[in-house]
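Running this now, will post back.
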Amino acid sequence: MIATLAGKVLSKSIDRAVVDVGGVGYEVIVSTDGISRMPEKGEDAFFYIHTNVREDAITLFGFLEEEEKELFLILKTVSGIGPKLALAMLSGLRVADLCQAIAAADIKRLTTLQGVGKKTAERICVDLKEKVAHLSAGGGSSTTSTPSLSVTNSTVSDALSALSNLGYPDSVARGALAAVKKQFDEQEFEQLPVEALLREALRTLA
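Update: finished.
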């Protein structure tokens, strides 16, 4: 059973990365938030791994922090939540934010997550309220969950909307656009057409 993985990043896409460990490439399924924060191609990476074994497949789910892996495993204990939905939830909110939403029974916020309906959100809150309390203060603070990005014009708003339509969570989309903004001065950034802004944002996520 693989518990951790350390090696060089060979490639990464929207929901997975391939890591070279001693000449063997391991495919690791990662949340979109994790993909946006992990090292670039050719750099060293370290993952906490959950090995999911089924009759027809062995899948590695990777996490940058131990708390993220712990919350993933806790979420999977809820009836109706499998590994894919648990990972989708971690793609939408960082650990501390997700735990705080569960502890506060914030059904409205939880139902904004992909695949989470009202009944599922209610079940999560009932089952996990006490189990996630110790994680709500760590594992990704709410101050870093949504990068600072002022939506100063319609171009930025349109780019955010386009990234959302492509499946990127708001926090990931804002992080990508914030990274693009750092490459330009204020006036140049404001004058970028939406196509160029979107292209540069996707490049930071590649």
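Residues 146-205 form a domain with the Helicase, Ruva Protein; domain 3 fold (CATH 1.10.8). More later if anyone needs it.
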